[in-house]
Each structure stands twice: as structure tokens, then as C-alpha cells.
Design goal:
This protein is of the alpha/beta class. The chain has helices at residues 4-8, 201-216, 265-274, 286-289, 299-310, 330-333, 337-354, 373-378, 382-393, 416-428, 447-458, 476-492, 525-536, and strands spanning 33-36, 40-45, 81-86, 94-98, 108-119, 132-140, 144-153, 158-166, 176-181, 187-198, 217-225, 241-249, 253-257, 278-280, 315-322, 361-366, 398-403, 433-438, 441-442, 464-471, 496-501, 540-544, 550-556, 558-565, 571-578, 585-590. A ten-stranded antiparallel β-sheet has the order 1-4-9-6-7-8-5-10-3-2, with no helix packed on it. Strands 13-14-15-16-17-18-20-21 form an eight-stranded parallel β-barrel, surrounded by six helices. The two termini are 40 Å apart.
Amino acid sequence: MAFAEEETTAYYLGMNLVEDHCDTADGGLTAGWSPSGSCTLSAHAEDPAPDVLPPPPPLLTATPDSDEEEGVPRARKPSGRYVLAAHRKDEKDGVCRAISRLPRPWVTYRVSGWVGVGAAGAAEEERSSSSHAVHIEVRVDGHRPVGGGVAVVEPGKWGEIKGSFRVDDDEPPRSAMVHVHGPAAGVDLKVMDLQVCAVNKIPRLRHLRKKADRVRKRDVILKVSGGRAEDGGVSSVAGAHIQVIQVQNSFPIGSCITKAGINNPEYVDFFTRHFDWAVLENELKWYYTEAVQGQVSYADADELINFCDQHGKPVRGHCIFWAVENSVQPWVRALNTEQLRAAVEARLRGLVSRYSGRFPHYEVNNEMLHGSYYRSRLGDDIDAHMFRETAAIDSAPALFVNDYNVESANDPNATPEKYVALITDLQRRGAPVGGIGIQGHVTHPVGDVICDALDKLAVTGLPVWVTELDVSAADEAVRADDLEIVLREAFAHPAVEGVMLWGFMQGHMWRSHAQLVNADGKVTEAGSRLVGLRREWTSHARGKVDSNGNFKFRGFHGTYQVLLTTGDGEVRKRAFDVKKGDAPLVLDMDF
């Protein structure tokens, strides 16, 4: 699983593509920067340098002999020197500068540094009293956006830039610019220590392998005995051949499925062999089960759930409601307040009681960071009410929030901090929130950015699932690399308990250039990468029982079968589970 493209561009790694200039009267601070729109630029310095923790990660580099911190971003002291854009007349006004060393196609780049906001004077004090979204946008060839990031910044504080971009094109760009803008008109904008560097993924992957070993594996000692000998049966099994086979990993990886998909034999074959869980892409959503008022049908959902039961795949409940207005069917939007409240209650009772005890998870009201349809119509408590009533009808499933862009640092509406605030408010209202879903519709992912978001969500103490993962890239090798980045970050993080892909086969997916299996049934590089990772995350061991009757190995958490072959060739079987724990797991195995 090598990242060959990154290795062939080693000379770019660690190089800041934004050149520093030090030949101007202000020490080079404004050289290279230009106003974008209507504003004036000036150079400033804070002495001592501002305290901005955590610092933005530079390019992930490490020496070959570095220890387990290899691949972890190093702290970098801020310079305190920044450029200020003042007298801004529009939120699009800001600063820009050329990326002097042009980015290469299909290489992921990090944009890092700090941004700040502040009023130009007392007249603007009120409008700058709240936080502002600062957008960092990279454009190539004059106009085409290729990525960037967003930092939500409070006045008087510095916010970390966590942008990323990639030119997904075989032709190299002729020009590239970084644009920084976003706060309301009249709010000053500050930019400090901007860097654009290619991402070296190799050290990060080495770090994640070590981290996964700590988080997902455990030492196991099997104390093997057999018969009723005076020595406890040890002598009868000492030297016997033993084989340990993991039959299930406790970290599930699943996918959404569709009615059309399960009628395709190649679709069914890949799903049943390589995925543990399922979720219905659309067939359980309200607009699907009741497109016309009063005409409720769960026939397609039942067909898919029965298919999963036949193949032993647990099903997540997605979703009871959807908070985004354009995902609410027209007849629901046409209801008056009391009619809407009655319809919500009928949907809750009808769906949740019908499938009581069937689903281990429910996503209760999808995408509340991006929509507030029911809250705007029925009051601030309605979201929490949905959670409370769902739990009252069916207490078995964990009840999830679920949203997109939280892991990508590119959406001011979906920062990890805002997600935690939403969860805290639901809990304050008595909502039994049981899990956090981050959807994972990602483009040019960067591992440490994802990890930072997961760290911030982990403070809630709730389990996190990646619920709708897909990565889109026309280049198959790049798509496979992107998929591996997200899967390894999730697998190595202790707060994450599972991953669901949002489809896997071309023609049966919401997103283009994201397939693991082509329409003709051929497995893509990304599909092979998934299969390889699943193989890597499965533990097998074989050897002989030692003279003390012990067999030791280190394995991933999950369910195992052990086969003991006696001296006369008899094969005896036992099963056991390896669960999380710091101390070695000692199991008595009587054969």
C-alpha cells in the first residue's frame, strides 16, 4: 500500500510554495500580498508573538528512525508578523497572493497558518463582537477553485488554518493563487505565517499503524489444558500444534445498500464478502416511505432488511427525520403547525414501533448543523423531543446525530466545536444522544485534520462512527490513497467504533468517481485497498503449546476460533473473544 506519487515528488515535501520576501520597508510582510477587492493592506507585528495553541501542523515529515511520534505534526512557534486588510467593504474583500511554485497535479497540499479578525474602529465594534468565518480559497488558472479551508475566529484571537487542496487534472496549472476573505464588511482581517506545502503521507501512515496496534490490539495468553492429568492436563497438550483464526473484527466496516443493488449478483457478492453492516441509502427515509400523504409503504425497506437478515448483517436506521428543508417532502412542508406536529408524531410511532428491536442505531434527525426545518416550525425543543420519544418507543438502539463536513475543516456551519455545542444542547434538554455520526463525504483528505476533528468530538465521551464515507477522484490510485487515509485515521482513533461507506459500486452510488467496483464488476484500486486493509486488520497465529501449557499471541479485538491438533491427529475447536483492555488477556482453554 505505497503512496508512489508522493514518493516520486519527494523534493516538494517540506517546501513552502509561497515564497517569502524580505526586501521591503516593512520587512517583507506585505510583499507578495495584494488586496482582493476593496481594502487597504498594512504590515504589523506582535511582540511577544501571540499565544495561538494548538499551532498549525506543518508538512508531516519525519526521519526514518523517529519514534512513535513519527507522523505527528510538530509545534511551530508563530512569528507574530502579519498582514492586515482594513477598510473592507464586502465579505469577499480580503487579501491574495500567488503560489509562486506551482502545485503539481494529483498531489494533496496543506494550507496552514493563522488568521484573525478585529474591528477597524468603534463604529464596527458591534459587528465584530461575534465570531467570523474566514475562508481560505485556492484557485488555479485565474478562477477555478480547487480547495481551501475555513477558520471560525473570535475577535482578538487567532484561528488556525487547516486548509487543503489538490489539482485533480492531468495538466499542471498555469497559475495558482491563495485568497483569504469572509468576515463581514468593516471587520479587519489578519493573516500570519501562511504556508502551502505538499503532504507527505508516508510518515503519517507509519504512525497510524503503530497507533492502531495500541488501540485495536491486545496481548493474549491461552492457558491450554486437556484431560485430567495430575499436572492439570498440561502434559497431554504440551507441544501440540495450535492455530488461532480471527473470524470477526470488533471494528465493523459496512456500506449503504439499495433495492436495485441487491438484484445485481456482483454487487451482492462484494457486499456479502467484504462488509459487516448495512444501512439503507434511501428506502427508510420519510420522503421515500410516505411520498404522498397517508400512503405509507415499507415494502422496499422490508425487502432490504430481510436481505440483510439472510446474510447476517446488522442494519443501521437511517433516518427518522431530515432537518434540511429541501429534503422534506412537499406535502409535509404544506402542513400548518398543528398538522405538522401530528405528522411528526405519526412518523415516530409508525416507524420506530414497526422496527422495534431491529436496529442497533438510529439517526434521529439528519444534518441538524445544516438545517432547522422542524425547529423553525415547531420550536427549539422539537429535536430533543424526537430523541426522547424514539427512546421511549424503542430503548434498544443508540440514537445518533449525523452530519457532514465536520471532519474536513472547510465548512463554517460544521466545525467540531459547533457539533459538540449541538450535542450538549440536546443533552441539556434530556435527549439521550448515544453516538456521533460524521458522514465522511471527503475530497483530498488530510489525516491530521481528520484526527483533530475526532479528538474534539471525543471529549463528549460518545462513540463516533463514520457513517457515509466516500472519496471522489477520477484517478484510481489517488482514490485508493484517499480511502486509505480516512480508513486508517478512523481505525486508529479510540473514539471511533465503526465505518460505513456510502455505496461501493458504480451505478449504485450517489457520488461519481468514488466506486470500489466498476459497473462491469471489476474491482478498482480503491476496492483492492479496502480488501487489503481488512486483511491487515485480521489476526491469525499458529505454533505449538509451550511446556507450561501456554500459547501467546497479540491480536486485534474480535472473535476467534482456536484449533488444537493433538498428537494422534485429532483437531479440537474452541471459540473466544478478545475485548479492549490494557492488561494481557489470560484465558483458560480446556480441550
